[in-house]
Q: What sequence folds into this?
């Protein structure tokens, strides 16, 4: 099985590469090359990018900042990341559009669902910025929401580990990887695939979720082509 329309969710931390914060030019270039391998197969591809490399709203709120203000700052951080990825893709000859849930027309287009679908039909890579445009929602939830709105076949979450484990594999050598999970498994076991609202929304609409390692070269292409990579989350 292969997928024709895909929503790729990329964490902000992934853009750091080996740096402690910010955006790594080498990582951005690597990501654009990985996306190109999918783009050349005429797959309709949309991206949602987090902002953990710049500012995380939940972390700011935990330090006493107003949660709505912190989340708004995080959403603006996703716009910075989206523009950086757009620049790398277009330098490689891939036509790209950034659509923001927070209107800022001097740097990107406003998010309109039918406009996004039209860009995809014309073979452009679409980057959804600024999350849902509302505080209290993560970019995971934004990714699932946008995937459903554009009727994507699957949402793929590219992370720094090669799937979902019963505990943090970077801290515990005996961590066990799951090849397949149900939505209810994720919720009942409180696994850190996506936040509960994102998984619940995916479950309600039966949207498959694939979690895999972004840093393993060729993984995006393999996942799009239906090969077994990472962990698959479905209804059964």
A:
């Amino acid at each position: 099985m292969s997928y024709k329309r895909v929503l790729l969710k990329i964490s902000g931390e992934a853009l750091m590469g080996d740096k402690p914060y910010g955006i790594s030019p080498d990582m951005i270039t690597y990501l654009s090359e990985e996306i190109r391998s999918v783009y050349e197969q005429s797959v309709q591809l949309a991206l949602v990018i987090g902002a953990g490399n710049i500012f995380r709203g939940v972390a700011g709120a935990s330090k006493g900042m107003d949660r709505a203000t912190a989340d708004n700052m995080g959403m603006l951080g996703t716009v910075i990341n989206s523009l950086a990825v757009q620049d790398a893709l277009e330098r490689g000859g891939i036509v790209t559009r950034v659509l923001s849930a927070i209107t800022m027309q001097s740097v990107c287009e406003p998010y309109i669902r039918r406009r996004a679908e039209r860009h995809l039909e014309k073979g452009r890579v679409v980057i959804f910025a600024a999350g849902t445009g509302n505080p209290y929602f993560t970019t995971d939830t934004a990714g699932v929401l946008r995937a459903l709105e554009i009727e994507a076949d699957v949402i793929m979450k590219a992370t720094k580990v090669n799937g979902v484990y019963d505990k943090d594999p970077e801290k515990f050598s005996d961590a066990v990887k799951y090849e397949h999970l149900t939505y209810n498994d994720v919720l009942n076991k409180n696994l850190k695939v996506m936040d509960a609202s994102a998984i619940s929304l995916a479950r309600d609409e039966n949207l498959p979720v694939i979690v895999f390692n972004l840093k393993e070269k060729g993984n995006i292409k393999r996942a799009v082509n239906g090969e077994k990579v990472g962990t698959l989350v479905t209804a059964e």
Q: What stands out?
A: The chain has eight helices and eleven strands. The first helix runs from residue 25 to 39.
